[in-house]
Each structure stands twice: as structure tokens, then as C-alpha cells.
Amino acid sequence: MNYSERHKSLRIHTQRSECLTLCSSFKINDSNGESAIYYDAVYKLKNSILIALISLLIIFGNISCAFRNIINPLPRPAILEEEQLPHKVAILPFVNKTSNPEGSEIVRKMFYNFFSSLNYIDLELAVIDDTLKRVGLYQEIVTAKEVSPQEIGQLLGVDAIIFAEVLSLGKIYALIYTDNQAGLKAQMIRCKRGKVIWELEHTIHLEDGEIPLSPIGLAATVLKTAISHQQATHMKAASELCMQVVTTIPNPPARVEPPPKIDALVHNGAGKLLRPGDYLKVALVGKEGQTASWSLPPLLDNLAMKEKEPGIYIGAYRIKPRDRLPHGRLIGYLRSDSGSASQWVDILGPLKIGEPTILPSVIAEDTSLDGDKSPYLVKDALIVLPGVKLTIHPGTVIWFHSLGLIVKGQIQILGTEKDPVRLASVGSSNWKGLFFDQSSTENKLYFCEILKAEFGVRVSDSTVSIQNCLFQDNVWGIVVDNGTAEINSSLIRTCEKIGIAARKARLVVKKSIITENNSGGFLLDDSKAHIEQNNILNNGGWAIKVIRDHSQVKASNNWWGKANPGQMQIAGPVNIQPVLTKPIDFMVMD
User: What is the pLDDT of residue 457?
Assistant: First the structure.
């Protein structure tokens, strides 16, 4: 198939645009009758593998009403050496130019999945990464430092390599609309001569829309209970982008039988904790009449799947008492009778498997938690009593059913760059978050990830120091009410409402990124704030909003997404001069 024919084959999807509303206060409205109806219906269906399969097909565009590709037709790629195409190719780690810490991983895996249907031999991503890390080249590549194609070719035993930069993955806010954007700059380079074979820079825009109340809508809601609507949108954008980009890569004639095509892989474990006795169900969609299997390294290897219907392969595994895997990634395989094979790397994970360590509801004496007994599970609320210190060591994972962690004493979260501490919900709904309530001593959060909470951190009459932390997919990121917070080198993104809010508080924010928060970046009320050396951009309603004239807010030397931020971005009495003319080049979370 030539370029023109491949281009014509791309599907364009449609759906109505979604209406976004901004919050007007700190009050959260928990009552939502429509959501309750959805949840009740979804609860009855959530264990159905067929519904999960339909949900995945929604992500990858096989149902036409899911999304609409609104602008940017596919450009013609630069194909510089189409003759004598390489035989064996390695897709190197992608450089992440986005604020999404998972951006490069999501797009690279999706690119790999589509690329595997071409007539090249491609190395498994894990093999590439392990080899590069062993010789110290992995970090060089992901930080966009120049490396030798000849050296990498000899190291990996390949004829060509694919370099790529993920330029964008997430929502883009404008005055009258929002859209979901994904952008990639990629090139295939011949190792021996260092010559470019193919290159392309491409960005797509998908208009995010409503999900109708229908069987398809319910299926999408099931998916949201597992990985959130925002994550599903990112995956959809990554899928559409990679599908379009890969169709432009010159495909060599097949030397042997082409590998059987995989269209999708889905499982019922995303976003849930699978305990002993539970079933992990897997479905693979691809070419009919093949041999399908799946693995979950290092726990499970090459488990067979049955073809229940033409091209639909089903597998299942019952979790055993000794099975334990805090962050697992599933891989699906499809093999022909002649031995040619393709594989699909799961992006719905990570899977959580095993019997957790149950924490008591009250920490009444000084306590330490570490990775050896992790993951921990909090069934109700976990309360640290006054005068008591809770220390959480690197690599610790704590899951919450629905409530959260209340600190009346002191907490020290001491993660590291290599082994951060993770706090997240184990179920389908948000947990309440980390609440500091009249804690009389300084609390520390170092290298901590707080995900999918109603409040990532809420501070009331307390003091907290936050460094190198990730707040992602929360309703509110950080809220400080009559307290003190110092935030340094952290990423606060994709909050449903506000990134950082403060009332009658003292706030210092430095060397951080505040982005993609639906209602706004900062909301400050009667507070003293020093905000400097940050990237504050691409937030929904505003970058900073100050709602009382006697607030004292200094916000100089920040990057606002452009050199001259307008009144729509800055509201109220705040001094932003001087402004930076370009973004600060730093990564606060790896």
C-alpha cells in the first residue's frame, strides 16, 4: 500500500464537543444523581470481558462516535532512502517534551504496537531498555543527548534505529474551546551510515466530547472506572497519532510470511487490585486462525488463549495466594503456523496483584512503613494521632479504598527519585487524599506521587514542605487553608478543578510546573504568596486568580506559556513582572 492509499484508509471519528464549567468557590458538590445512575449500571457490568473489549475498541477508534479529528491532516513524510530498506529495527526510548510524565512511555508503546505489523524485525522494548541501561546510554537518549547510531546498532544488533520526541500529549486550552493534542517528531536512521531513511513531525487534535447514555456509553464509563476519562483520552490521542504516523513509514517486502496483525488488547485488571481468588481476564483482537498467548512478567509467561470467535482470543488466570505484583505490565502475542509473530504491549496497566498489608485505622505510636511489606491497604481512614510520627520510606505503595490519610501528628514521606512513594486509590472512585489537620510540626513530602484524590494535599492550620512530588488526575491538587506550604520542584497537573488553592495562607512555590488544570492554575484568597521560577501554562480558566485586594502575591520570573500573558490568564492584584520569555528547562519528575 502506497502513502496515498494508506492516508485514505485513516478513519475520522465524530462526536459533539464537551461543555466545560469552572468552579466558583472551594466548595465541592458531591451529590450527582446522574453519576449515581451511571455508577449503578456500571457496577453491574464491570466484570464483563465483552464490555471491557468494547471499551478498548472505543479507545482505539473502532466506534465512529468516539472522537473527532478536527484539524491537521497528515503531512507527507520525508522518505530519503526508500530503496534497500533495513531488516531489523530498534525503537529507542522516546524523549519526553511534554508535562505528562507518562507521555513518552504511552506514545512509544503505542508506536511499537502499530509498528510491529510492518515487515521489519523489531526488538522488544524491554530488551532495548535493559541493554541501554547496562552500558549507560539510556539516560543519554531520553535527555536528547547526541549518541552514535553506529554504536547503538552494534550494541543492539540492528540495521536501523527510530529516534522520536513526544511533543505533546494532553489538553490544550484556548479562549473558546479545548482539544486533546498529541504530537510526535520521529525519524528512522540507518545505523551503518547514520543516514535518515524516514522522518515525520505530526500533531493531531481530537475534540473531546460527551459519552451518550447507551450501551456504548456505559462501556466507556466502565473504562473510566478503571483508568479515568483523562487517561482514556490520552490513550486515544496516542493511538490515533501513532496509527497515522506508522502508515507513512516505508514497508519493505515481506521476506517471510508477514506477522499476524493485532488490533487491540484488553484486560479487566486496570486500576484495580486483584487478590487471591480473583480472575485476571484478557482479550486479544487480531487476525483469525492464529495462536494467541499472553505474559505478565515476571509473574506469568506465555499463557495460552482460546479463539472464542473469529479473531477474538480469550484467556484467564486465577490469582494464587503467593502471587504478588505491585506494578505489572501485560503483553499479548499472536503467532502464525509458520512461526511469524507479533506482540502488543499493554498500556492500560499497571496491574496490581497480591494480598496487601492491611494498615490499622489509627497510628497511635511512631511507625515506619517500607517497601518490603508494600503494598499497604487502608480500608477506611488512616489517622496519625497528635504527637505521633509516621515515616514512609522509598518505594512504599499505599492504596486507599475511599477515604484518606489524616495527619494530626507528623508525617515524613521520604521517597527518592528512583523509588518514589505512591499514594492512590485501589478502586474505581477517587479517595479523599492527604489531609493535614492542626499538625503542630513540619511535615515533609519528598518524591511522592499522589493520584486520583479529591484533594491531593489539604492543609489546615498546619505546615508542610513538598519537594519533587507529582500531583496528577486529582479533583483539587493542593489546598492550603490557614496554613503554610512550601512547594519546590513539583508537578501539579490535570486537576479537575484547581492546581493550587490557598485561603488565609502562606505559600511559596518555586521551580515547579502547574499545567493542564481544568478550572485554573492558582486560586488565592487573602493569602501571602511568593511564586517564582515556575512554568505556569495551559490551565483552563486562568493561570492565577486573586480574589481579595489585600492579598500579597508576588509572581515574578515565571513562564506563562507566552512572553506577554493577557488579562484572561492573570486576574486580580498580582505582580508578575518581570516575566520570563521562554520556559524553564527542567524535569521535576521522571
Answer: 98
